[in-house]
Amino acid sequence: MDKIFIHALKTEAIIGIFDWERQVRQTVIVDIEIGADVRRAALTDSIEDTLNYKRVAKRVLTFVEGSQFHLVETLAEHLAMLVLDEFGVAWVGIVLSKPGAVRNSRDVGVALERDRTSLEQWRTARKRP
After folding, report:
1. Which one of 3, 54, 58, 98 is the catalytic residue?
2. Cα–Cα distance between 73 and 81 in angstroms, integer?
3. Using one digit for the tens of pLDDT, what is the confidence trace for 80-89?
């Protein structure tokens, strides 16, 4: 499988479980890998035949900046579902990190992979009371 990637997409969001974290925007860094067949685009040399990674990056930034989740796990899951749903891709990998969240570490975070089946399961789970 071919992959399109965006590394170190940096932005800020309200994220965290402590009261002070709910009051300030913190840096989050997102790495995205998207399963894509790029053969047609390679032949035609046309943006119309591939995933426009600039559109993906802008959408992810808009979502993260407007979010207010407590856990990086929740934000990463929502990002994966957003990319799967809005861009119609078969597979996505998200690495979301929060620099400086733990003293004496560069960053902490979560890495996950999701596919179309995951999207359908997520939709079903969200409908349950």
Report:
1. 98
2. 12
3. 999 999 999 9
Q: Which two tokens stand for residue 87?
A: 């861009």
Give the C-alpha separation, 99 to 108, whole Å.
6
Give the Å distances, CA to CA, from 21 to 28, 34, 42, 87.
13, 30, 45, 31
Q: Where are the alpha helices (DSSP H) in 52-105?
A: 53-66, 72-87
At 104 the pLDDT is 87
Q: Residue 102: which pLDDT band, with cuts at 50, 70 and 90? A: confident
Is 54 an annotated catalytic residue? no
- In 3D, which of 83, 55, 90, 65 has the Cα closest to residue 15? 65
The model's pLDDT over 27-55, given as tens digits with 9 standing for 90+, comes to: 999 999 999 999 999 999 999 999 999 99
Exposure string of 4-18, with b = 16+ CB inside 10 Å and e = fewer, is: beeeebebebbbbee
Q: Which residue is listed with tokens 């349950």? A: 128
